[in-house]
Amino acid sequence: MKKISTLMTMIAIAVLSFSFVSCDEDAEIGYTLEGTWKGNMYVSSNYSGRTYDATYSEIDFTSGVWVDYYSNAPYDYIANHITWTVNNGTIYVHFVEEGTDIRIFDYSLSDYSFSGSIYSGNQTVDFQLAHTSSPNWNRYYYYGYDEWYDTWDSGYYAKGYNDAMSRSVKRDVELPKRIFRTK
Length: 183
Hints:
single chain, eight-stranded antiparallel beta barrel
């Protein structure tokens, strides 16, 4: 009887230990999104009464920057800072400078590709992106001796980069307005 009681206690402890482990799907999606993604988001912009289609877009979820590149427009690119979050599997993106929001849902996400649907206003647009860089792909250094620079360091740190957008001066000119378009 004592062996059965001990065995039941061990089984109960094993079952309870699994209940303390939590796998947060939203956090896993966020970790996979970290890095830079490049592809066609089917973005256009309105400027001076004309509409221009972006050639491609780059989104860096790590630093929070979304850049749409244009080839036949009066500007080469439109860049915005973004904040984003994942809630119940839906990705919410806020464009800081524009003050607009989009939702990304019904998507497929892997370490290499990201495709799905964007909901902007009352419009749904499909997109497809490829993963071009990641913070885990040589962006972070480990503390210790760095043979390349012949120095010692005392912790993890990220490479610095120049973010000229945060120091730009606001001008009183018409700015292009981002719109999402169907294929």
